[in-house]
Amino acid sequence: MARKYSSGWLGSLQLPVVVLAIVIIALVSIFFYYDSVPERTISIRARTQQITAHFAARTDWLLPHAALCEARLPSRSTRDGASAVVDAPCGNTERKLGEGQLSLTWPSGARGVMRRLGTGPIEILLSSPMSVEPGEATIGDASGSAPTISLQTTQQRIAGHERQRIVIREDALAMIGSLRLAGPVVIGDQAPSPDILVEGHYEIREPLRWRGDKLTTDSGALVLGDTVSIVDRERRPIPVSGFLTIVDREVSGFDVVAVDAKLEGGDEQLKLARVGYQDAYLTPHWTERAVADKAFVVLAAVIAAISAAFSIAGETISIATQAKARRVKIVSRAASEGILRQGQSETRKAEAEVSWHESAAGTRARRDAELLRRFVG
Amino acid sequence: MRELEVVGGPHEWVRNEATISGAIVVGVLRLSKAADSTPRLRAMVPGWPDRPLCARLMSVDGLYEAEMDFRTPKDWTETALGDFKFETEYPDILDETNPNQLTARITRGACSEVHDVVEVVPAWFNQESAPSNSDLAIFVNSGRADRLYAFLGDDPSAPAIPCEPVASERRTSYDMRCDIPGSDLEAGGQIVELMPERGGMADPSTTFRVFFTEQ
Question: N or C: which end of chain A has fewer CB within 10 A?
Answer without folding.
Answer: C
